[in-house]
Design brief:
By secondary structure, the protein is α+β, with helices and mostly antiparallel strands. The chain has one domain: 2-Layer Sandwich (TATA-Binding Protein), CATH 3.30.310. 32% of the residues lie in helices and 37% in strands. It is built from two helices and five strands. Strands 1-2-3-4-5 form a five-stranded antiparallel β-sheet, with helices on one face. A hairpin with a 6-residue loop joins strand 2 and strand 3. It starts with a helix and ends with a helix.
Length: 79
């Protein structure tokens, strides 16, 4: 399930012109890179309560159901 959520986010961030790759043991972390700034954010998907959330460096957190909004936010942070 974790990898599925990260792959879904990867598709969304790539559609916004960002680069990304799954990394770590069992590809449990998504590294997202701004192509111009080369800044990077690491994202994980983790079970929270009865669902799943994305967590990213800098204190970001959002429900996986908000994948488009998360991708937009990451694009803003990395621009």
């Amino acid at each position: 399930m974790r990898r599925h959520h990260l792959a879904t986010l990867a598709y969304e961030v790539e559609a916004r012109g960002l680069r990304c790759r799954l990394a770590g043991p069992d590809e449990m972390v998504l590294g997202v890179v701004g192509p111009v700034t080369r800044r990077q954010i690491m994202v994980v998907a983790t079970p929270v309560g009865s669902g799943w959330s994305y967590l990213w460096s800098g204190g970001g957190m959002a429900d996986v159901a908000r994948v488009s909004g998360v991708a937009d936010q990451l694009a803003r942070l990395l621009s």
